[in-house]
Amino acid sequence: MRTFVSALAVILALLLTGFAVPAAWTERNIVQEDGFVQLTDRLGKDPAFQARLAGIAVNNIEAALELPAPAEELGASLLQDAARNMSSWPEYPHAWNETVRRSHRLNFADPAGDPASQSAPPAGQASDQSTAQATDQPTPGAAGTSLVLDLGPFVNLLKDKLQAATGVQLTVPDTAVVAIGGPSQRQVVDRFAAFAPMWWPAALGAVMALALAVLAARRRSAVLLCTGIGLAVLAGVWQASTVLFSGLAGAGLGESAMGALFARELIAASAAGFAPWIGSTAVAGGVLFLMGLLGLVLLARRKPHTAPAG
Question: What is the pLDDT of residue 111?
Answer without folding.
Answer: 45
